[in-house]
Amino acid sequence: MAGKDRVASFNISKFSPPGIVNLDIGDPTIFESYWRKMGEKSSLVISGNQFLSYFSDSKNECWYLESKLEDEIKRLHSVVGNASVEDYYVVVGTGSTQLLQAALYALCPDDGSNPVNVVSAVPYYSSYPELTDFLRSSLYKWKGDARTYDEGGPYIEFVTSPNNPDGSIREAIVKNGQGKLVHDLAYYWPQYTPITSCLGYDIMLFTLSKCTGHAGTRIGWALVKDKDVAKKMAEFNTITTIGVSKESQIRAAKILDLVSDSCQNPGPDNFFKHGQSLMAERWEKLRKVVGQSGLFSLPQYPKGHCLFTGEFSTEAHPAFAWMKCNKEDIDDCEKFLRGFQIVTRTGRRFGSDPKYVRVSLVGKEEEFELFLERLLAIQEDF
Amino acid sequence: MAGKDRVASFNISKFSPPGIVNLDIGDPTIFESYWRKMGEKSSLVISGNQFLSYFSDSKNECWYLESKLEDEIKRLHSVVGNASVEDYYVVVGTGSTQLLQAALYALCPDDGSNPVNVVSAVPYYSSYPELTDFLRSSLYKWKGDARTYDEGGPYIEFVTSPNNPDGSIREAIVKNGQGKLVHDLAYYWPQYTPITSCLGYDIMLFTLSKCTGHAGTRIGWALVKDKDVAKKMAEFNTITTIGVSKESQIRAAKILDLVSDSCQNPGPDNFFKHGQSLMAERWEKLRKVVGQSGLFSLPQYPKGHCLFTGEFSTEAHPAFAWMKCNKEDIDDCEKFLRGFQIVTRTGRRFGSDPKYVRVSLVGKEEEFELFLERLLAIQEDF
After folding, report:
1. Which residues of A touch B247 (CB under 8 A)?
2. Tens place of pLDDT for every residue, chain B, 382 residues?
3. Cβ separation of B251 and A42 shorter than 8 Å?
């Protein structure tokens, strides 16, 4: 089962001798230096008598949502301009991972006789198949690639934009008229891609991990248009975890507050501009190394007018490199790179060709530099 | 579906005019005054650059577990003497609710042709049916009362001790030789019941909510004997939420540290002795009011030798009162009490008789006092 692979990814570093560069997981430690520099103003104090109650705001459909977090989520989207918040319900989750499952639960009828088909276009985020199928639910079932899906009847399509693993901007594929869409917008932030429009889809998912780098905080949020869907998503989070850590919620509120404030700043303290220059620098270095030979290739991205920076010709700098090995006799790029102590995620996990791998570009600086060194050495050998 | 009821419980206070006393949910705010009194020494500071990574300790089977939390969990069990920790694996979850599901996932074969039956003795914790069945998994299926269960083949039994709702001390019921047990020990702490022995079951679940009162923190933990089971439980938490909030984990570590320290103290700063006197006081008041007439009755508990306090004749003071209405023409005690603006949870939700209700005794002082007042008034009327 696919779940094994994913969990193996999280346990992989225990088998990693110091020489291995692990770029399998998108562990967003690249932003750590920014937060270190912020110093005390980014600190949070929690006193012993806080958060004894399960409840935050029992008037809200999402009864466990801290109102301060709701306010900061809405404020940040308004500042960045990436998603509409007016007339949307906010549902918070333990990472957007929990919300993906909550959306499946909310969009499937309780009493359906057949499981609803779940699809996403190849290459799709490697976790979709496993989080859909690992409990063998009769409510929904993974059906694979949206591009080849041609059944009638109800379905759910995950639309990831920018896409994980390949950074492309996407729209829904299937058009049989009976679909429900879940837009996974984890990477729709200015450090990764130009913000070309303010999105207003039915269900839009975001996560603190990829927005500010706080992956350990496990906070995701959904902007949901329909009240009953929002309510049922909150119901899922109630049944599975009786809400979401309040410590994480107020920490996320604090971090988002600082990020929104920083957007007033034209200099390097502007979080997204800082992030954008970090990502641009890594992509520039990577493209230079890959350009040394024809052994590997990388996607090209169209430039766009970014509403956030106001710049007309902004490049995308995705969190992952979707790298192809062009050598004919190398069918399995992941295996090939592993031979050089570089751990990546095989294209197979994304429903795609094993000639591709996904490489995390959001890890620690020293890991990234070591990766470049090795990539250079490999190319010299071949 | 039962899930509706549960979620309704969490949304109920939105429909509660100020006059309603809501004792449906066991929201453990009774301990707030203790934590307020602890003041600054119970405060925690989190800086902006903490917890960017998903990982805590990649050498641990539970790779997202903060080692400080693991240490404090083991220390507290050693101080209290309620459960063995030597040679046990610690798996942390987003509340013990997530761990109940993780245990089901870990104990069922991936490739079983039939769902494994899940049972618990009536009256059972009202969430078991819904968290087993809400996704209509083919791995496991709720089968109800363990006492009447007589099928062969594999099964899983939830053993809750002290039991929620009725506070009784329990052991496994079904004995067909093919069962796996999950011991839910959320209330096996000195404020609720004498600690009569140090337990050493295969899977033992605990939660910060009921131990220290920090329900909003959403931290539960499992002590697991078998390495593969521990690993598969951590796998469940990886797939569903990619681990557990690190803010909550270090907060829980801090709180447990203070509780263990306080156990050295013979006075009212000893957390469990303080909790015990609070619970004893409420039970004494409640028994006095209920004793005014024969309209209601409450369970009696045997006294026991508490290894923690060293006292030979310690009474149990459960977190909930399992209250029976003895009046012949009142079949539905929950409905009857609701007529007097007292919201409780019907016995029906626990697989039991609607003549019973579960009443939370761990809420705010003013709510408890209002409950007693109304109970007294009801008895005077009847």
Report:
1. 46, 216-217, 245, 247-248, 251
2. 445 566 667 765 545 556 899 999 999 999 999 999 999 999 999 999 999 999 998 889 999 999 999 999 999 999 999 999 999 999 999 999 999 999 999 999 988 889 999 999 999 999 999 999 999 999 999 999 999 999 999 999 999 999 999 999 999 999 999 999 999 999 999 999 999 999 999 999 999 999 999 999 999 999 999 999 999 999 999 999 999 999 999 999 999 999 999 999 888 899 999 999 999 999 999 999 999 999 999 999 999 999 999 999 999 999 999 999 999 999 999 999 999 999 999 999 999 999 999 999 999 999 999 999 999 999 988 7
3. no
CATH 3.90.1150.10 placement within chain A: 2-34+268-381
Closest-CA residue of chain B to A239: B131
What are the b/e assignments for B227-261, b being 16+ CB within 10 Å? eebbbbbbbbbbbbbbbbbbbbbbbbbbbbbbbbe
Domain B2-34+268-381 CATH superfamily: Aspartate Aminotransferase, domain 1 (3.90.1150.10)
Cα–Cα distance, B76 to B72 (Å, whole number): 6
Render the burial of B11-40: b for 16+ CB within 10 Å, e for the rest. bbbeeeeeebbbbbbbbbbbbbebbeebee
Name which CATH class applies to B47-262: alpha beta
ipTM above 0.90, yes or no: yes
What residues pair up with B140 in beta bridges, in sequence order? B116
Out of B31, B47, B139, the one facing A136 most closely (by C-beta) is B139
Range A49-262: architecture per CATH: 3-Layer(aba) Sandwich (3.40)
Q: Which residues on chain A are in Cβ contact (under 8 Å) with B51?
A: 214-217
For residue A380, the distance in angstroms to the closest alpha carbon of chain B comes to 33
With an 8 Å Cβ cutoff, is A28 touching chain B?
Answer: yes
- Please report where in the chains the tokens 């009256």 appear, as a residue: B123
Compute the distance between CA of residue B249 and CA of residue B244 in angstroms, rounded to an integer.
8
| Dihedral in degrees, nearest 10, Cα atoms A323, A325, A330, A333 | -10
Report the Cα–Cα distance between both ends of chain A, in Å, rounded.
35
The Cα-based distances of B162 to B29, B110, B317 in angstroms read: 20, 32, 10
- Residue that is written with structure tokens 């290459």 in the block: A123
